[in-house]
TrEMBL record:
The keyword rRNA processing does not apply. One of its GO terms (cellular component) is plasma membrane. This is FAD:protein FMN transferase. Gene3D superfamilies: ApbE-like domains. It comes from Alishewanella agri BL06. Flavin transferase that catalyzes the transfer of the FMN moiety of FAD and its covalent binding to the hydroxyl group of a threonine residue in a target flavoprotein.
């Protein structure tokens, strides 16, 4: 009888605790500027986080990435490598080597379409740090620059990066934002925040679903006169990157020159694809593929996407307006 009486208060306590409602997760948001654009982080937590400390941790990581990979910081690791007119190997930090390795992988897989050495051609066509041009470069100017452009002109062996042509310069702007998204997502996960959204200038990654359901991510309509929505995707545990040429271009004699350069021709793309959106679990990979598939004409892009099981949405300009085209792997995301 004594043991039963001892158990009764414990059982009552367990019943009371078990009936308490679960603590509601609250949405928190942090934001700032990086890589010449904005970043926004949203996450859900049942406990009050130290937002000041978390913001500082995120900003410190982004500053590190800029110090390593920015082409707008003369003393970044990447710019120091670019200035070295030598074919001797240079030892990189693991972070920069990780991004370059993925760029080389996608570059080789795509037959050189993603080319992080294309920067000198981007500059030549007036879309780089030196600013816009008013006249298209002539054939001789293009050929002179193409002599030191090509993904086949760099070799990465572990952390050792080597130029095969001393004048080669690397620009990671087609893939570094995605790496930044990954790193912020990894920081949130390390703090135990499973439900989150990271957005750096339109490159995004979401974690587990929100308490209210899947994350709703808008794909922008490719028009330069306004910001409107083409399609809304419901996602979880997925990254998204979009590449488009509808805001960064110039015109001369009625010809529209895109900022996206086709490494095969050394000239801006001329086809009708105005944006490509890629879904992939890895934001850096999505970023690289988005540029690749925007450079390729639509038929080639979809063939490549289907060959490699990539979830891709293309928006193509037609005489009637805009047409959506998508890969087989994208079909489950249409509803």
């Amino acid at each position: 009888m004594w043991s039963v009486c001892r158990l009764l208060p414990l059982l009552l306590l367990l019943l009371v605790v078990g009936c308490q409602p679960a603590q509601q997760a609250t949405e928190y948001q942090l934001q700032g500027k990086t890589m010449g654009t904005y970043y926004v982080v949203k996450f859900y937590s049942e406990l009050q986080p130290d937002l000041t400390a978390l913001q500082q941790e995120l900003d410190t990581e982004l500053e590190l990435i800029n110090d390593l990979m920015s082409t707008y910081r003369p003393e970044s690791e990447l710019m120091r490598f670019n200035r070295q007119q030598t074919t001797e190997p240079v030892t990189l930090t693991p972070q920069t080597a990780t991004v370059i390795a993925e760029a080389i992988r996608i570059g080789r897989q795509s037959g050189g379409i993603l080319d992080v050495t294309v920067g000198p051609l981007v500059e030549l066509w007036g879309f780089g740090a030196r600013g816009r041009i008013t006249h298209a470069p002539d054939d001789a100017q293009q050929e002179a620059v193409r002599a030191y452009v090509g993904i086949d002109k760099i070799v990465l062996d572990g952390l050792a990066l080597r130029k095969l042509e001393p004048r080669v310069a690397i620009d990671l702007s087609t893939i570094a934002k995605g790496y930044g998204v990954n790193r912020l997502a990894e920081i949130l996960l390390a703090h135990g925040y499973q439900s989150f959204m990271v957005d750096i200038g339109g490159d995004m990654r979401v974690g587990a679903a929100k308490p209210s359901g899947l994350w709703k991510i808008a794909v922008e309509k490719p028009v330069s006169t306004e910001r409107s929505v083409q399609r809304i995707l419901a996602l979880k545990n997925m990254a998204l990157a979009t590449s488009g040429d509808y805001r960064n271009y110039f015109e001369e004699d009625g010809v529209r020159y895109s900022h996206l350069i086709d490494p095969r021709t050394g000239e801006p793309i001329q086809h009708k694809t105005v944006s490509s959106t890629v879904l992939h679990p890895d934001a850096m990979t999505a970023d690289g593929y988005a540029t690749t598939l925007n450079v390729l004409p639509a038929d080639e892009a979809l063939a490549f996407a289907n060959q490699h099981q990539l979830a891709v949405l293309l928006i193509v300009k037609t005489d009637q307006g805009f047409e959506e085209r998508y890969s087989e792997a994208f079909i489950p995301f249409l509803n």
